Every structure is written in structure tokens, then in C-alpha cells.
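Quick one: co-fold with pyridoxal-5'-phosphate.
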Amino acid sequence: MTPLARSDGVLRCGPFALDDIAARFGTPLYLYDGALLEERYRTFEAAFAGARLLVAYSVKANGNLALLNRLARLGSGADIVSGGELARALEAGIPAKRIVFAGAGKSEEELGAGLEAGIYGFNVESREELHLLERIAVRRGVRARIALRVNLDIASPTPHEYTRTGHAGTKFGVPADEIMDLYRWAASRAALRVAGIAVHIGSQIVDAEPYERAAREIFALERALSDEGIPLEYVDLGGGFGVAYGDDSEIDLARVAAAVLPAVRRRGLRLILEPGRFIVGESGTLIVRVLYVKRSGNKTFVITDGGMTELLRPSHYGGYHQVEPVRARPGAAVVVTDVVGPVCEDGDFLARDRAIELPAAGDLMVVRTAGAYGFSMASNYNSRLRPAEVLVAGGGLHLIRRRETFADLIRGERIPA
Ligand SMILES: *Cc1c(COP(=O)(O)O)cnc(C)c1O
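Sure, here it is.
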């Protein structure tokens, strides 16, 4: 299933032609397919059927309230990495009891907010964080449910080094030589409830093998803890499940499932998984309009009204996205072009050296598979207004975030008297 189908030469999402959508809401514009979002959630859940499963959707992939609310109604929980994401998840109707809180730099206020809300568990990433959380829990007279997010020195072959989080020498997770010690300490504290163990090895991983390794090590630790009288309720294998951006293939969830289901059943454990991109990546499309086409230094540039401020992945991670015209142009020359944005940075591009049907000024183009780490990484750099977001669902077209205005841009700024 793809969110976009071409009929009569024009791309459509459900019954809606993309040029009509763009005419109504303007560009650049994020468009989401609600049916595909739901299908992806159900596909993920089904792959792990047979486990006592909590799908903790990773809010940082895309935190729009409307999308979170749809996932909440499907039974999803949330994996959050900030107090802002906690507030977002609760506002969208995700119950606190289905929220886990990761992140190497949680502040005292954020830990307190998580306790206040009564979240399912904190994925603690360091000794100091564990000590701070314990002090806050004592002060509040509550018990904090914790898992250690462990660093097992698992290299994950992600497309970019910035998205690898599982190897030793990153800021993420408790280093291997501290794990047992910290668990023993936590188990001795009345204000802490040792509930689980967590790992997250990276993002956009399409090979199942690193998950198999992570699972082996996690279950070995779980058994060692249980043998010491520290039984766990759950294991959390994190997220990172890769999708297809082009002709490549996505992660084989059946293989990941085969590596974890027998162990969680045998050990009577709950399984938590934190997919972000897998759920929301494909359902999102960025629609941009061509402003200019120009040749410079033997290169052809298609300059659009969307760029790194709307979709940072190409610029930041070298991320690949398919680009294509909304309306087919039969007979148009296929030319190798850079599709770039209007931002004053040479690194502002959506696609580089891509053979595409050369568009003309005014044409609309789509950037596919932009639902994850698209809008959520959008910025106001160059004082650009963040785009609107639109959802196709239930046969209707819904504005789920209006385009920003100049007033939004300067809200909170003051010129001193
Ligand atoms: C980012 C993140 C995820 C989600 O990663 P995806 O690649 O979007 O699945 C899950 N867990 C943690 C702790 C994360 O930081």
C-alpha cells in the first residue's frame, strides 16, 4: 500500500487530487494518509502477536496531536524523550500507564512531571539520573518504576552515524560494566521499583541481525538479574525498525519477532517496542511547489518552496527520499537535477543528482516517505513559517495544524524599552 496513487496523470491520496489539496492549503504542505497509518500500526502489532505487547510509539518521529490520538485509539502507548512530548502524549489521549520515558538528559522537572503523571516506566540512562530520580521519588513519597536502558556495545548498520545509538562510546545507555551494580542499588531502594530492562540500538535499521544480538544479550541480563532475586516484568527492545525509502526493502519483522517471542513467553515477560518511523514514515508526504529552475556551473537546480526547514533528513543525515511531479508531464526531458530549497545554506537540499522529469516554475512535486522526522524536525530558520499539516481520513480532508503566521514567529520576543 502506498499513500499516493496516480490516476489521470495526477497523484491522489484517497479521493483527493494533490493539486486540489495544495490549492486549498498552500505549500509547502505535509499530507498524511490516516488509513495507511492505521495499517502500519496493525502490521507492526500483528508481527508480535502472541506476546503481552506494549507498542510505545516514538513521539519524536511525529508528534502531531491528531496522529497521536489516532494511534491512542488503536491502543498505542508512547515512547517519549522530553517533558514536552509527555504533555503532547497525554493531551492526545495516550494513558500515562502506556508511556515510557527515555533520554540521556532528563531534567529534574521532567523526571518530576513523569512521576506526577504516573507513567509506566523510566528508561534510566545513567547512575546520576537513577540517583536523582530516587531522590525525587522519596521527596514525593511515590515509587518510580524503572528500567535501565543498557548500552551493550551493539553496532547497528544505520545509513548515517548520527542514528547509531547502540555502540559503546555514545552518550546513550548505562555502560555494560555498571549495569548489574546499578540494578542491585535500585533494588535496595524503597522508592524505586525495578520493573524492566531497555535497549535502543539506532534508527532506520533494515537488518534483523542487530536485534537478534540485542535480544540475546537482554535476555541473558534478565536471567542473571532474576537469578540474583531481581525479577523483571518487561523487556523493551526499543525502536529503529527501518522502512523502504526507495527500491530498498524494509526490516523483516518476522525475524525480529522470532528472536524475542519465545523468550518473552518462556520468561513470562511483557514486551515493549518503540517504533516511530515504521508506523508513520510512509504515511507522510511533503508537497512543494517549484519556484524556479536554473542552470549554474553545468548543474540544473530545481528550487522549491520547501527545503531543509521543512525536511531536514537529506541535509542532516544524507537521507534519501523519492521526489516526483504531482502531475505527469508527458514528453518532459529527464534531467539530472538537484532539488533544493530557498534557505541560505548550500546544504539546503531535498534530493541531489536525481534524474527526474524536468519540472517548470509553478509545478507541484512530492517528497515521499516524509512522515517520520519530517515535521517534527522542522524549524523556523531563516524566519520561515512552519508548514501546515493535513490528514486524509474517513473520506475527509482535515487540517491538523495550520500554517504558521508572522505573529507565531515573533511570539514571545520583546524589544527592551
Ligand atoms: C528515536 C527513538 C525511537 C524510535 O526510533 P525509530 O527509528 O523512529 O523507530 C525509539 N526509542 C528511542 C529511545 C528513541 O530515541
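If it helps, DSSP finds twelve helices and 21 strands in the chain.
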